[in-house]
Description:
It is found in: Cell membrane. The chain is mainly alpha-helical.
Amino acid sequence: MITDTPELALPRGWRTFLTLWASQSLSLLATNVAWFAITIYFTTVVYAADSQRPQLALMVGALGLLTSGPQIILAPLAGSITDRYSRRSIMLICDSVSALVALMVTLVVWSGSLNVPLLLLGVLLGRVAAVFHESAFEASYAMLLPEAQLARANGLMQTSYSAGAILAPALAALIIAFPQHLSGGLWGLGNGTGLVMVLDTLSFVVAALVLFWLRIPSPQERPAPGAKTDFRADFKLGWHYISRRRPMLLLVLLVGVTNFALAGVNLYETLLARFNLDADFVQRGLSFESGYAIMTTVTGVGTLLGGLIISSWGGLKRNRIFGLLIPLLVQSLAVLTMGLSRSLPLTCAALLIFGLSYPLGGAHSAAIWMSQVPRELQGRVFSVRRVVGQSSIPLGMVVFSVLSARFVPGPVVAVFGVVAVLAIVSALLGKQVRRVEDKTYLDELAAQAS
C-alpha cells in the first residue's frame, strides 16, 4: 500500500488542495458530459413516445436510486476505512476503479450494445467507487487546511459541480455531433456518445496520476497488523458522537427531510421538461433537447454563481447554521415554484435561485461538521451523518417516480417543496438546531449522556 506521512502539512496544504481540486474537477466535468449524453439518448430514443412516460419515470427513478443507494449502504464501511487507512491511497484506488468502469461502458457504447440493464450496472459500479472516494476526499479537507479555509474550499468544489452542469450540455452536444460532420464518421461511430465515454475514462486516469504524486496527510490511527476492523463498533462510535449531541442529531434529521424533498431536482428537471413544459416548448419553437438543456444550464449558472460567491467570500465565521438554514428555505420555495410553473422562464428563474443557494448552504454545512468533529473521527462520524441524512434520498426518488408515473409531475414536485418549507421553518423557530456550533454545550450534552 502507498504510504503517507501522517503529520499535518498546513504550509503547503492549500497548494495541495488546489492541485487535487483541479484534477477532480476535470473528472467531474467529463462525468457530467457523459451523464448528459446518455440521458438525452434514453429520453429521446429509447423512451421517446408519450405513452412511455411510466417507463421513463421508473428508469429515471432507478438511476436516482442507484446513484444514492450505495452511499447509504456503504457509508459505514467507507467511513471506517477512511479513518484507518491512507486517504490518498483510497482516492487513488477509487479513481483507478472508476476508470475501468468507464472503460467498460465505453466498449459497450462503441459496440452499440448499450441498454438499460448495462447502463444501471455501470452506474452502480461507478457509484460504489465514488462512495469510498468521497469519504476519503471529504475527510482530507481538515487534514490540509485550517478551519478558516474550510468553507472556501467547499465553495470551490461547489463551483466545480456547477461549472460541470453548465458546460456539460454544450460539450455533450458538440462531441455527440462531431462524428456526423466528418466524412465517413469517426472510427465507424454514427454519433459521438462513444467519444464522450472515452474522455470520461481518460479524466479518471488523469485524476489517478495526479494523486500518485501528491502528499495528503492522514490521521495517526491505524489498525494493528493482523487485527480485524470492527465496522459495527466504528459505526456505533459515530452514532454515539452524534446522538449524544442533540443539536447535531436534529440537524442530521432535518437534512434528511429536506433531502427527501429537494435532492431529486435533477429528476424533477427531466420530467417537468418532458411533461409539464412540453406545450410551452412547442409555443416557443423549442425541442425537448433544447428546452432541457436551457433548464440544466440555468441551474448550473446559479450554482456557479453561488460557488463563486462562497469561494471569494469564505462564508460566515460565526452563526454558520443560518448560512445553511436560509439557503435551504430558499431552495424549498424554489422547488414549490417549479412544481406550480407551466412557463419555461418562471421555471428557469426558480432553478437559478435554487442553484444559487445550493452551494451557500452546502459549504456552510460542511464547514460546521468539519470544524466540530475531530479529524481522526471524521470518517466514522461523517459516515453516520450520510446514512441518517441521506437515507431519505432514494426513498424520495422512489416516491417521486411512483407518483409521477401515475400523476402529472408538477403537483408532486410542489408537494415536496411544501414538506421542505415546513421542516425548515420549524428548525428556524426552534433553539436546539441553532446551537449546533456551541462546542461547549455539545460536549456537556455528550458528558451527561455518557
